[in-house]
Design goal:
alpha/beta; three-stranded parallel sheet
């Protein structure tokens, strides 16, 4: 693991730095239908209330970044990830980490996150390389 690797996950109003010398960062991973019965059913029924509530509950429990995954068996992840992402963005401005199994879903929904002016920076590593995901950029 790179000794000086720093990751910065940002939303329009909040920024979270992840680094081995910094305090641990809690990332809420509950917005993930794997191993849950109610969330896949709600997603198939286009009911995003459970996603909104999961986001709020995780923030109340100490999460500072929210992971969003919409991969359900028999579901079209790119089509489901967008409304799930928007449901989260309706209730919080916390930074979001997209966690799709389908890479096409990530490509499509990065535009939605970019519209919110979110960005992710990965700085450092042995080469000192910097990678930024931001509006209008790779």
């Amino acid at each position: 693991m790179a000794e000086n690797l720093t990751t910065i996950v940002s939303s329009q109003s909040q920024s979270v730095t992840i680094h081995r010398d910094a305090p641990a960062v809690i990332i809420g991973e509950r917005i993930n239908p794997a191993g849950r019965k109610s969330l896949p059913k709600a997603m198939k029924a286009v009911d995003w209330g459970i996603v909104r509530q999961d986001a709020l509950d995780q923030l109340a429990a100490g999460a500072v970044v929210l992971g969003v995954n919409a991969g359900i068996p028999g579901g079209e992840e790119p089509a489901l990830l967008k409304p799930a992402l928007h449901a989260v963005m309706e209730v919080t401005e916390a930074p979001i980490c997209l966690d799709p199994a389908n890479p096409h879903a990530l490509k499509d929904e990065r535009r939605s996150v970019d519209e919110r002016n979110s960005e992710t920076d990965v700085i450092g590593g042995n080469s000192g390389a910097k990678r930024r995901h931001a509006p209008n950029g790779p």
